[in-house]
Amino acid sequence: xxxxxxxxxxxxxxxxDWVTFFALAFDAMxxxxxxxxxxxxxxxxxxxxxxxxxxxSSEHPxxxxxxxxxxxxxxxxxxxxLAEALDLPLHRFNxxxxxxLQLYPGVRETLEALDRAGIPVVGxxxxxxxxxxxxxxxxxxxxxxxxxxxxxxSPVHHPYPDRIRSNLTPDGVVxxxxxxxxxxxxGLLLDICRREGVLPAEAVYVGDSLSRxxxxxxxxGVVAVWARYGVQYDPRLWAILVRVTHWTPEDVEREKAIxxxxxxxxxxxxxxSEILPxxxxxxxxxxxxxxxxxxxxxAINET
Length: 303
Fold this sequence. Notes:
By secondary structure, this protein is an alpha/beta fold. The chain has two domains: 6-16 and 102-302, Rossmann fold (3-Layer(aba) Sandwich); 21-100. Helix content is 45%, strand content 11%. The protein has twelve helices and seven strands. It has helices spanning 18-37, 41-55, 68-73, 79-85, 87-100, 107-116, 129-138, 186-196, 210-220, 235-243, 249-259, 291-302; strands at 6-10, 121-125, 147-151, 174-177, 203-207, 223-227, 267-269. A seven-stranded parallel sheet has the order 4-3-2-1-5-6-7, sandwiched between helices. It is elongated and about 60 Å long. The N and C termini lie far apart (41 Å).
């Protein structure tokens, strides 16, 4: 293994518990919709499932505007009008998200330690850019990332386009990954390593999925670190997400095929800070001026 010079980290359920915060936020929104629309919960979930499949994502809160029950209740309403009419459920979503979106213990301190040691960190996610950037910014760690790689996605449905957070990202930070390169294609990580100027053996990838993250890193020749803590969530919350998943039957079969192969990780961690020993040879304990990070944080604050 080469000397580690780069950390590539998954975001959801690696830096924070995505399953818990998003399931609780989504559930709160649905309960609000039941109150406003006076429609059966199961009917709404069926409608969400259809809309999510069409959008190719389960993480579009404003997909609510496309529900048949909403369109029937508010025919011809604009996006801004729907936002006002559905203020209660949307507020419940945002309130629950703010309450439950939290970093796993030690994540902030670990990212800061890597920065002091001069180890660049890049993020990789299959979440939509606006959602991914919002989370990093909300959690106060956006400035710790040299680059953020996001999956090419469908247009974001938003009643106020000028407020979309992805429009506020600093220049040059975000890079879009073509959909054919999505996990667990090792070409994705090979491309990231090439762009970041390191050999695969000089990069460490950390993620929570054995079949998608670890297999991909293993096949790319990148040091594969399994964040075992990322699969420790309430199965009842996972069931909420499965109920309205954007996965089509074809996607389900694809995931089954992916799941049949699980590579052995090079390391297993039960908290994010346990990746630090992999970089100790790079003078991890030695502080350095974090001028680049401070400059990026200033750019973020100015937007």
